[in-house]
Amino acid sequence: MSLYIGREASKLWKRICAETTTEINLLADNWKYILGGLIFQFDAYLLTSVTRVFFPQYIHGLAARGVHYLHRPGPILQDAGFFLLPELGQDKSYISETLFTSVFLSFIVWTFHPFILKSKKIYTVLVWCRVLAFLVASQFLRIITFYSTQLPGPNYHCREGSKLARLPHPQSLVEVLLMNFPRGMTHGCGDLIFSSHMIFTLVFVLTYQKYGTKRCIKQLGWLIAVVLSLLIIASRKHYTVDVVVAWYTVNLVVFFLDKKLPELPDRTGSASLLLPLSTKDKDSKTREENHKLLNGNSLDPADWRQRTQVNGKILDDANLVHADATAMNGA
């Protein structure tokens, strides 16, 4: 039993090492896209403390902080969702955040599953390049939208009478750039249309819909997206229009960019055996060998030839078998 565990542990460790080498090579070629996406999308106001640690996405958070200075509290607008869904209350607003955090962390875990599991359909770095492209485009549109018209925030800390509903003019540029960390990052107002929670959720669900393998998880993902939409409205964090606009905008953005971006290689098919891991020529041989190791293939090209077993001997060419059989019949 211990021998079996040791052997499996050794295989797992080799798989992790080989996968890490492959992803590092991909990251070396795509780090500019990853870094650019992370810098653009900083939204610690909308993300929980856990997600803030992993995604220091700055520019979007800076824009959301800026619109808070323009926010003017007022009566909550008439909203169909508010009329249909009972208000959860401030003490239950954590429910939507908890569900969103679960979706976020689950997606991260899934994107790193090739490091451990044998089923390897995706490359982690390439998936995140694609995801960040969707997020950047969606949140760029979001910034344009919430700066076009500032609505009175329906959230509890954005209503009339709250000290956090309006911000005094900044005293220095440093105050703006630091976004009054950490309080200014968790109590924003004015960045309403459209919901950033739904941007992340829908991008994750759509990505798994295309590259995931479990049908039940795909169906669960869409169900969670619908439930989260209702919870956001019931928590009065967004108007119904914020959620509705997010649903069709994110889907259209993903549909459009998905046609423009190069398709991800499918690692489960035989056509990916010789897939180049880099566009650069240097170290191409080492990377090719690592890729073959990841897919369980031999490093020797001679091993790809068709082999046939005859009388206990393995021949490399089926034609030799025919010739040998003819010679035996003639004898």
TrEMBL record:
GO-annotated biological processes: ceramide biosynthetic process
Sphingomyelin synthase-like domain residues: 188-256
Pfam family for this entry, one: PAP2_C
Cellular localisation: Membrane
Primary subcellular site in the record, as a coarse category: membrane
Transmembrane regions listed in the UniProt entry: 94-113, 125-147, 192-209, 216-233, 239-257
Entry's Gene Ontology cellular component terms: endoplasmic reticulum membrane; Golgi membrane; plasma membrane; trans-Golgi network
Keywords: Lipid metabolism, Membrane, Sphingolipid metabolism, Transferase, Transmembrane, Transmembrane helix
Annotated membrane topology: Multi-pass membrane protein
GO molecular function: ceramide cholinephosphotransferase activity; inositol phosphoceramide synthase activity; sphingomyelin synthase activity
Top-level taxon: Eukaryota
Family per record: Belongs to the sphingomyelin synthase family.
Database matches in PANTHER family: PHOSPHATIDYLINOSITOL:CERAMIDE INOSITOLPHOSPHOTRANSFERASE 1-RELATED (PTHR21290:SF62), SPHINGOMYELIN SYNTHETASE (PTHR21290)
Name of this protein: Sphingomyelin synthase-like domain-containing protein
